[in-house]
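Hi Y.,

Following your request, here is the sequence exactly as I used it, all 86 residues.
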Amino acid sequence: MADLSPAAQAVFWAFNSKFDWIEDGIPGPQFNAIAAAIRAAADQVVPSDAVEPRNYLPMAIECQRIRKEILAIAEELELEGVLFCR
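Below is the corresponding structure, written out as tokens. Let me know if you'd prefer a different format.
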């Protein structure tokens, strides 16, 4: 878990703090569930340009940068879930 970025760790611990688990007792699928929730939020907050094209290029670039950062957190958590299950 130490390899996660500060943003991904913050998301993980915010989720985990609602339960009486210890770090070693968390099953890998929890990471996948968190990643899925983050992807769903990204789709709602910053839809891809394919879904919602933007006519103003600077805004489109900024929106896609934000989307990429949000999805990177989801990818990190999902990968951590895979590694956790090994």
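The longest helix spans residues 57-84.

Thanks again,
Q.
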